[in-house]
């Protein structure tokens, strides 16, 4: 990989999210989010932890910026904690000037160091009051209006930010939050796990509401802010790569495509094509909401860029029985082994993640084709390491497995650009540092920087942090 194939202004760097790194849950007037509430329920987080301290980044912005400088990063993707800005969340609730001041200064400090901020408005941490007040994400009228108000407050407060992401992975908030119940607010039909929830319906309603809220915020940005500030706005979607379990079986080939549609096209088809995928309409029937004319006008064409989060791949096997009511995959199985016994990739600490860089290449090409060659930013990509948390520090910082993951995935990205003409403008590795890995707590580490949770949150760069910069610099054009 010696050829310089990426554009001169290609942005590479690292990503994080507010609840996973900030800590300081009550500092300067912050209100609780649904994740504070969820973490307090026994059994929801593997190690019984929460984001109460995390990396203490709220008090260590200078350290985090120094880390970014050390890696040579050109960009940093972080998210804003809505309940720091509007502690109760709603459009008639007071705005907290201290919350705004914090992010304003952070953006200024990043820019002073020449680091381009990529700002996510919502990375799962809904103000808890909105969930209690009217059912949060399930309530289209109220929630869309409150999100629009919050978005406008942030666009107004941070005119120097030119790269906005409305939502991070609405699939996760919808499915893990309202179907399996693994994530906040933990709704599911499984009454052993939650007293409330309807896995067959709520997730599809929430997904629909995300699209309307996204379209509404984008309209506000384009009409009220883009003309004076410039800048771009898009949504970030997650999606794993797929291979048919049996390449010779047309039903597995079809199921693999259906898996992409149920995860990615659920959101991307309405935005780029103006309708839900036919496979979803067919399986879900009237449980999938329909768009009114006004809603469609908001949603269609609402991406200036496509934000892509990507980690892993699966073999896909079709199911022979009719889909269950709570099925969200498209009536199929996701497997780590193919019919011929081929393995998808080595195990990591995350049950769902196995490295397979070829899948990344395939998916980039698929996306580019299906959505007519959009401008893509890879807004997350990275891996955990099996057993990393149990290793001594000198072994943890020598994370060759993670370094090799990045070599493979960045190589696949370069190939998609140079050989397939995919339009990729930036790449943000997940994550700048070890952090609160949601339901997995602190046992699973994703950082290129080690964070010592027992030792005053001290940060130490790992090997992987040091290889990404030189790798990108060798493939970015200089002229
Ligand atoms: C993404 N899954 O989440 C998130 O955007 C990050 O906040 C998170 O830390 C990172 O990936 C690593 O997990 C996901 O179960 C969480 O398939 C879970 C899944 C996928 C993505």
From TrEMBL:
Catalytic activity: Hydrolysis of terminal, non-reducing beta-D-glucosyl residues with release of beta-D-glucose
Homology family: Belongs to the glycosyl hydrolase 1 family.
GO biological process: cellulose catabolic process
EC number: 3.2.1.21
Keyword Iron attributed: no
Residues that span the membrane, as ranges: none
Source species taxonomy: Eukaryota, Fungi, Dikarya, Ascomycota, Pezizomycotina
Gene Ontology MF, one: cellobiose glucosidase activity
Hydrolase keyword on record: yes
Name of the protein: beta-glucosidase
Organism: Phialocephala subalpina
Keyword annotations: Glycosidase, Hydrolase
Pfam families in alphabetical order: Glyco_hydro_1 (PF00232)
Function: Plays an important role in cellulose degradation. Shows hydrolytic activity against several glycosidic compounds.
